[in-house]
Amino acid sequence: MNKLLSSTLLGLMVLLAAACKQDTQTPTGPQTVLPLSSGGSTAHPALAWPSYVSSNNNQYSNLMVSDTDASHQTSILRAWANTNSIQYFNPSWSSSGGSLAFAITRFGGAADSVYVIDVSDNSHGTPVGSNLRGICALPSGVYLDRWQGGLAWSSTSSMGEIAFIGNKTVYVVSSSGGTPTAIFSQTTLGGPSGISWSPDDSRLAITRWDSAWGHTILIFNTSTWSVVDSISVGNAQFGKLAWSRSGANKLAFGMTTRTWNGSAWTYASGFYYCDPTTGATPSGGYTGDVGQWSPNNTSLIYPAATSGNWYLVKVPAYGTSATQLGSIPISVNNGFDWKR
Q1: pLDDT tens digits, 212-223
Q2: Continuous segment of H or E residues that includes residue 292
Q3: Which end of the chain has fewer beta carbons closer than 10 Å to its terminal beta carbon, N or C?
Q4: Are 292 and 242 in contact (CB under 8 A)?
Q5: How confident is the model at residue 329 (pLDDT cuts 50, 70, 90)?
Q6: 74 burial type by CB count under 10 A (0-12 exposed, 13-18 middle, 19+ buried)
C-alpha cells in the first residue's frame, strides 16, 4: 500500500510540475511582464506602441507588441507606478528586430531615461520581454520629447546608435549605453519634432519649427553631423517623419497646411512623400497620420482614432485606400514602429 501511495504521489507531482511549467527566461527590472499562454498560434511581433491599462482606479503605461495584422496583442512591459509618475513613449525596433528602445518619462523630479528591452516568443508562442536595461539618463532639467517619433534606433547594426529629442535638442547615444552627444539644438519656437535614419544610416532627418507656420526638414551627414540638405514648405506644420526602408529612398511625413481663402484660413492634414536627395516638392496628401514603412516599402501602418476608439490603419505607399486593422487599447498616440 505504501508503495502504491508513493507511486501515486510521485505521479501527481510529475503532473503538477508539468502543469505549472513556465519558461525559465528571467527578465531584469521590476517592470517586466512575462505573459504565458496555454495554447493558440505562435505570435510574430512586428508592431510596437505604448498603451495604458486601468487597474484599481489608476492607469499604467504598457509597452505593447503585435503581429502586422494587429493580432496577438501583448503587453511585454508594465510600469511599476501609475501614469502620474511614469509613462512610456516612442518605441523603436533594433535593426535585428530582437529589441526595442523606448523613452521613459518620470514625473516628480526623477530623470527621464532611454531604455532597451529584448523581445522574443516563449515556448508557448507568446511575446515576452527580457533583459530590460537603461541606456542613458538625461541630465537634470532635460526632458525627453513626448511627441510621437521623438526617438529612433539606427537602421543598421554597424551604426548601433539611438537618436532622440530632449529640450529642443537632438542627441545620439550608443545602443550599448553611454553619455548622449548633442548634435543639434534650437531653443526658439517648437524646435525639432520628428527624427528618422536613412536606410544605410549615412543620413539623419529631423523636422524643425522655423516659425509657427514655416517648418523645415533638415538632413544631416552622420559622419560629420553637418546639415547637407533641407526641405521647406511654406504655411505648413510637420509631424512625424519616417524614412523608407532599405531598397528605397523616400521620406514620408505628416503635414498640416493652411490656405487663405480671402476671408479665413482653411486647414488640411495628411501625410506626404518626397525624395530627400533632391528636395523635391512633397506630393501626396492622404488624409491620416504618417506611421511607419513596411520592410519592403509597399505600405505604411499608423494608429488612428474615431470617437475616442483607437485602431491601426494600413495604407499602400503613395495610395489613398486604407484598410482598418484591429483595435488597440490606447488613449493617445505616443509613438509607433514597425519592425524592419
Answers
A1: 666 788 899 999
A2: strand 292-293
A3: N
A4: yes
A5: confident
A6: buried
The DSSP secondary-structure symbol of 2 reads H
**In the chain, what are the domain boundaries?**
25-338
C-alpha 193/C-alpha 238 separation (Å) is: 8
Q: How far is residue 312's CA from residue 303's CA, in Å, rounded to a whole number?
A: 5
- CA distance linking residue 149 with residue 146, whole number of Å: 8
Other beta carbons less than 10 A from residue 84's beta carbon: 10
d(CA 147, CA 162): 16
Looking at this protein, which amino acid is placed at residue 155?
Answer: S
Residues 6+ apart with CB under 8 A from 12: none
Residue 101 pLDDT class (50, 70, 90 cuts): very high
Those residues whose C-beta lies under 8 Å from the C-beta of residue 112, and which sit 6 or more positions away, are: 103, 104, 105, 106, 137, 138, 142, 143, 144, 166
What dotted CATH number matches 25-338?
A: 2.120.10.30
Residues 6+ apart with CB under 8 A from 44: 67, 68, 72
Task: Give the residue from 175, 118, 120, 127 showing the smallest Cα distance to 152.
Answer: 175
- State if pTM tops 0.85: no
- For 83, 221, 239, 245, the CA distances from 251, given in Å and listed in that order, are 33, 16, 12, 10
CA dihedral 288, 291, 294, 298 (to 10 degrees): 30
Q: In what order do the strands lie in the sheet with 58-66?
A: 74-78, 58-66, 47-55, 337-338
* Spatial contact of 112 and 106, defined as CB atoms under 8 Å apart: yes
What gap in Å lies between CA 189 and CA 214, rounded to an integer? 11
Rg (alpha carbons) of the chain, rounded to whole number: 22
Distance of alpha carbon 37 from alpha carbon 24, whole angstroms: 14
